[in-house]
């Protein structure tokens, strides 16, 4: 029994020391980037960050949230850099003095996904007509409902392009789930519903089931990503040198090339466009 | 059914290959949850026993509150800890949001009521039996706390295991305060949530199987170590 008690104490000692050592290791050069679920779920960061870390020694800790939440994390000073995709929300962030400068990084596009048998018959139509049809037929539609970039884009498509005030006119067919892109796709897959997704997450998503792309290539489905350094004057704890180094690398020819090189099943997911001042 | 076979195969493969990424995730899960449950135990066990030993106004109310907190929602604890540790929060200057330390704090808070309630339940009945004896022996109430915890060792172990079980299984709190950062704050449960959202359900379930095996192992080892403690009784 004595030995057991000793073992117990030994166990506790080992755990305690392991924990302390983990804390020491954590002291390396690192920044926190608040980003979107699409950049994580599509696997882009898993591909990019090791390249960046190898060149600079800076570890990038990514918190994957919706765009709205990621910007809020920046507003609280809990992130050094935000990497999101909703231009109007980003411009508001800058107007509040929360960010230093918005830099366009890359784009891809949104796609309207639905079941293969396409009960509402939207395949190949333009996105506004497709949404109108979905509403007329009351076909099940999954909305992110989480203030993410994709959610904001979806609302703009309903309200502006399809001319439907979705908040007023939605019915039980329109399910706002308040979760990430992957969760929305899982739900659409399980319930044969329509859903708007960014192409990157869709391509790398593994539980496609009977879903497929029904509407794509419409100019209104453009999806621009931007990166912003959180304003160090407002949040003194922001690591501005390291954060700026990350942004500079993303915008450099090297970073842009790395983004273009990321492929899933041979298909390119994101298109670099840091050189486009209007993006 | 196919999903489950794939999941089992994935789990076996992950364990068999000793996948280094998985190893780090497993180690972090154990580290965080064990530290949190040990902390919760060190704080909660004496407090739970004190609740059995001392008589003071508001005691019954406190006991009811502690028991009610057994159902503390992890996501609320996560949110509260997040707001406290955020750079804009009162404890922001420590800069420990999105670190394993923040996860330990959140899980410790979650496990604390469990330890207190279970320890109190054990020691209350022990106090009814041994209380007068201990006091007549010349021990004061403060010293009785230690004696009572010693007598109720087996109950203590149960309380600790329940605390650990709560900590290792929860995802709501650590997802918020840890941020699920790859290689840094990603644990078994947050990894499962992530793989589910990527639509890789077999991998997610495979990780789930590993987690269950893991938590059973920890409980088994604790019971083995703890059996000796019970011998003396």
Structure explained in plain terms:
The complex is a heterodimer of chains A (279) and B (233). Chain A is an alpha/beta fold and 279 residues long. Helices cover 45% and strands 24% of the residues of chain A. The A-B interface holds A 1, 3-5, 7-8, 11-12, 15-16, 18-19, 22-23, 26, 32, 37, 40-41, 45-46, 59, 61-64, 76-78, 179-183, 185-186, 189, 204-208, 235, 237 and B 27-28, 30-31, 34-35, 38, 86-89, 92, 95, 97-101, 104, 179-185, 194, 196-201, 221, 224-229, 231-232.
**Span of the ends, CA to CA of chain B:** 48 Å
Shape of chain B: globular
Quickly count the helices of chain A.
12
What proportion of the residues of chain A is helical, as a percent range?
A: 40-55%
Mean pLDDT of chain B: 91
What profile does the largest beta sheet of chain A have? 10 strands, mixed
For the record, give the distance between the C-alpha atoms at the N and C termini of chain A, rounded to a whole number. 71 Å
**Percent range of helical residues of chain B:** over 70%
Residue runs with pLDDT of under 50 for 5 or more positions of chain A? none
- Biggest sheet statistics of chain B: none
**Count of distinct strands of chain B:** 0
Order of helices and strands of chain B: HHHHHHHHHH
From N to C, what is the helix and strand string of chain A? HEHHEHEHEHEHHEHEHEEHHEEE
